[in-house]
């Protein structure tokens, strides 16, 4: 071992002694685990397991059927193809996503992105996807936060899936937060808020990345402009799906 390598190893050990690795959610020691989220916090993060709606990924009661479509998607079929998420937005999941988004915890973002990539590998093989596309934030929101969570997720997912990262969408105007709006107000709020950039366009489908899918209004508005530009199918991958349509 070279002198430089020995010094680096010693300083790493010293850092580990002074600052033992801790869970980014509850601060409990992670005992040398590579995961930034401890086992008990992971157990408090409900997984989005089958059966789910074949279109919007909503958890459904009953026997597994890959073609099951929820009542809301039957009434108003989404513009996007399929949406999937590794987690249900409940219990410890909202805290994990907010910690990543609002406190800029990049290791937590990388961990969430890895769970999202696994979801694609195991449960939603979007075979026709040729680009990973983030849902864009308005430049002012990005400036306020200091970073862009969907871009951070999309870059890692693209690398893990071996699919090109292509920021194809731009936000044309600032929109109010969707959190306290009704489903119809959410759709109006984001209508016409996106456009497709002048970048070279993929010849096949794309995987749209966001943190949470709630009513699907943002994903629909993005899918609408992408489809109008001749890009389809537009599938959606988020870290979490709300357990109910709002
Ligand atoms: Zn924890
Ligand atoms: Zn549905």
Structure description:
The protein is α/β, with parallel strands linked by helices and 246 residues long. The chain has two domains: 43 residues, no CATH class; 194 residues, Rossmann fold (3-Layer(aba) Sandwich). The chain is built from nine helices and seven strands. The strands form two sheets. Strands 1, 2, 3, 6 and 7 form a five-stranded parallel β-sheet that branches. A two-stranded antiparallel ribbon has the order 4-5. Strand 6, helix 9 and strand 7 form a beta-alpha-beta unit. It is globular, with a radius of gyration of 19 Å. The N and C termini lie far apart (59 Å). The relative contact order is 0.16. The mean pLDDT is 87. One zinc ion (ZN) binds next to helix 3.
Name a few traits of the molecule.
single chain, 246 residues, alpha/beta, Rossmann fold, 2 domains, five-stranded parallel β-sheet, two-stranded antiparallel ribbon, 7 strands, globular, binds zinc ion
Order of helices and strands: HHHEEHHEHHEHEEHE
CATH topology of the largest domain: Rossmann fold
Bound ligands? zinc ion
Please state the structural category: alpha/beta
CATH architecture assignment of the largest domain: 3-Layer(aba) Sandwich
Overall shape:
globular
User: Roughly what percent helix?
Assistant: 25-40%
Mean pLDDT: 87
**Beta-strand content estimate:** 5-15%
- The Rg value, from CA coordinates, equals 19 Å
The CATH class of the largest domain turns out to be Alpha Beta
Counting DSSP H or I runs of 4 or more residues, the number of helices is: 9
Weakly predicted, low-confidence segments: none
